[in-house]
Each structure stands twice: as structure tokens, then as C-alpha cells.
């Protein structure tokens, strides 16, 4: 049990676990993590998350739930998303849970 706790604590320090939905300003859902499944990101790697997400996970803690508007400059900016689901210069509404 103590070894398991150590592994979980060390993983918590190195990774961030989040669940979220991204929608446009008309509440059209663009992306959502699978229900009950979080996505994990390594804290030490750069450019894994959008800049707006980085700001949110830096300022909130595990267990927090945040609804935020992310301006296009902190999301996909002038290029839009690579799969053409998000047009250039589109602000996003994010519902984020930090696990």
C-alpha cells in the first residue's frame, strides 16, 4: 500500500490529469474527452496543451472545475485547428475539470 501511494504521488507531480469540453460561443461542442476518462499530460513537456489550458492548470488545483473563455490568441489563433473544426481567430468556451 505505501509503495502504491508513492507511485501515485510521484505520478501526480509529473503529470496533469484533465477532463474537458471545448465549444464555440454558440455552445456547439467541438471536442470532449470520453466520459469517465481523463487525459494525461506530462508537466515537463512543452506545447502539449493550448496556451489557454496551460494558464488554467497553472492557476487551479486538482478537484477544481472551471468554465472559461479562451481568446483565439491563447487557442488556435490565426491558423485555426489542423482538422478545420475551429476557424482562425475563434475564441473558445472550455469546461475543464482538473482531476
Care to describe what's here?
The chain has helices at residues 2-14, 51-59; strands at 15-23, 29-32, 39-42, 65-70, 92-98. With 99 residues, it is of the alpha+beta class. The longest helix is centred in the N-terminal third of the chain and has 13 residues, at 2-14.
Mean pLDDT: 85
Helix content: 10-25%
Give Rg in angstroms. Answer: 15 Å
Report the total helices: 2
Low confidence ranges:
1-7
Oligomer: single chain
Instruction: Tell me the series of helices and strands, N- to C-terminal.
Output: HEEEHEE
> Biggest sheet, open or closed, and with what strands and sense?
5 strands, antiparallel
**Shape category:** globular
Number of strands: 5
Strand and helix map with partners:
Blueprint: H1 2-14, E1 15-23, E2 29-32, E3 39-42, H2 51-59, E4 65-70, E5 92-98
Keywords:
five-stranded antiparallel β-sheet; globular; disordered N terminus; alpha+beta; 2 helices; 99 residues
